[in-house]
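Entry for the shared binder. Reason: the reviewer on the internal report wants the predicted structure included alongside the sequence.
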Amino acid sequence: MNKTILSLSVSAMFSLNAHADILISEYIEGSAFNKAIEIANTGDQPVTLAGYELAKSANGNSDWGNRLSLAGITIAAGDVYVLAHRDANADILSKANMTDTNVINFNGDDPVALLLNGNVHDIIGVMGDQNFAKDVTLIRQNLTASAVYNESDWEVKAKDNSDGLGSLASSDGGSDNGGEPITIIESTIMVLQGNSWSSPYTDPENEKYISAETFLIEGIVTAIQANALGNDLPQGFFIQDEQGDNDVTTSDGIYVSGFITGLSIGDRVAVTGKVEEDYGWTKIQPTNVDVIGHGTIPVTNVRTDSNDVDFDFSLERHEGMLVNIDQQADMYVARTYGFDYGPFRNNMVIAKSGLNLHPNQLNIPASTAAQAQIDDNEDRRIIVETMVKAPNGVPLWYPTFGQDNGTGTTDDYIRNGDLVNGLQGVLGYSYSDFRLYITNQADAQTFIHSNPRLPRPDVSGEGLRIATFNVLNYFNSPFDGDSNPTGTNRGATTYAEFQLQGDKIAAAIVAMDADIIGLMEIENNGFGDSSAVAHLVDKVNALLPESEQYTFVTSPDNAGFIGSDAIANQVIYKPSMVTLDTYRVIKMPEQHAGQTGNENGDNYQRDAITPTFKVNGTEELVTVSVNHFKSKGSTCWEDVAIQNGEDVGFQGSCEHLRVSAAQHLGNEMALIAGNKLIIGDLNAYGQEDPLLVLTTMPENHSVMPARMTYIGDEPMAGSNPNAISDSFGFVNVISDQHPAAYSYIYNDTVGTLDYILVDSTTASKVVDANVWNINASESKLFEYSSKYTGDLTKYTDLFRSSDHEPAIVILDVLGDADLPDQPTPPSGTDDATSDDDEEWYGGSTGLLSFGLLTGFALFRRFARQSV
């Protein structure tokens, strides 16, 4: 061969090899301008980047419009070159070789590529405006350049993590050892896990998160994470020691990040790498993985030990292991399967020994006992996940979830309070919670319904039945109904959703069989034939005989709005039982405190519709005040001006304005004669400030109303109102009879927002009272809304007709009144929608029991909090 040709051929060969060695090895897309790209030379020769550019495609528009030439840069063998945004944090800038604001100004939907002579040599990201890597650090595991992005080649680290930036060896978990041989220590999973909260080879309290030592361990692969699950679960696999060490204080399992190519469950592997504490999760950052055989790992039942300081540590001892949650594990569903807005996917929460209480349900806000409840909730919680993001409405680990049983409802459901019996998976940890990544499949037998579905409220006795029901934004204006004052829609977005919503609410109202019902979150569009309240009453009455039908309370002129909000409170009643005596609306306090930061100081509440009824055939008067106090979600003046945005007592926003509402409502109710009830959604848990004002204020305790409040144009309180230390003495009749009752769930804590309070005289006439767990206890996927529910079957039964539980009380005020006979619904009601107006319409009894709803102590089976 011609020597010149041979020389050119060899030169070309080395050039090609050199190009193959150049790739993007790390990507940081963090908060603010914390952005960086690390370029590596994985070869054994230095490479000068002639012909290379770093490029960005804005929003993945397929055009490399932002480019940065890398000509003149040389990267030594095994070294990296870091480009960072000039306004990145100090840690990133200390590792940067160059700063840039043109290309290094990307977001999580902007692909970044290394171009060689104008062509894509290596890429991270996908075209088409997709958030492939928002708020994360990505570290390359497969050190091979590719013109096609493969997310499985990258390990996901938390936002702003720059621990490995600036060192190729650090990117895959090793350390820069100056070319010296690395000493590898043979060890076991149990030794690396240790018997405490973190590996003994790390020291998180002193910011040592990665061991100095490199270890060689063996284990059996129990689960493989093919692609990263958000920021929670990076690509990698779980391994477990085949023999263990018979020491319950050390875990036999551990997670290994990356390196999944060619692995199968059951492989025995030898893993070389450093041990790391990744935000509390002990992992191995491997430099080598070899398959050396095959084996099996039996599942371990989760059990506590007498030496465990709390249940959280019981889980720590099982971290990384293949575990089983059986009946003896004593784990209950704390939030049933549904959409979680945190990681933005569907999951579920289970908790040790019972439900998680809101800290203020039984405790004074900001008290030691309330904080103890918060800590206890955290200690007992496990998030139930799948290792891939489940499609909307599809629990991948429960294939028959929501499946029709042939009667127009399902037996495959999960409810709060269900006892778990047979969920298996591997145990990880992220975002301060242990997470069970399910590896088996559940069925109806996996959940023991300790809190069973009841087709009717669990109340009994003769008397006047009064109920409260938040109907979750029942809006008919988009479907030829009258408009509300704001012209907005908070409810169903399609006619099919609206029909389903109405069917479910009507089914619940019929089965409730109350004589007076206070409704919240119904559209505020008047009282005409095309109003929401008229539409709902027509729908209910179509299912009832004429003698049992409802009408609704109207203003004297039968027109107008109740306040200026899009939603209002309404009252429906049976004329066969009561007659409207007085129409009354109590105007609730407004706040006009002036601008403070982003808070304009103008805050409003929904007025209380407060009719008085005369019980037919008697002289008894019953006043029912239906309320929906100010939301916890929007800010008021005190939240910004006094509390600096901190929610110290976990009462949510605007607790002071709710206190003003309670104070004004109590004063107004004191002027009314007869039996008095305050019902509705008070947006306050059992021991929060507004409830203390209305019921019983603890000795030597006081609460503060809002500043600068008005009733209409009349001032109520000035800029320095007096603290309130007295109460109005109303009786919370449901908590008196059922201390464990709850009406609402937020995240995975339960408590009461919906109340029936009666004055002390009327309290002696209470026959029975209870909540009816048909809504908050059920999966939100069964609601009328189709958002995030995919193709999941929806049912017209009464379950999940709203997000709040209805509540009902029976009062002994009928005397010897000559009232119409009360028909009794048949014991086996049909779930299917009936076209026969004379038929009862409600939920299927199926295998449902009529046992006490709270008999198993829904909140918990042990009491560690002070009351």
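Summary line for the report: The first strand starts at residue 22 and ends at 29.
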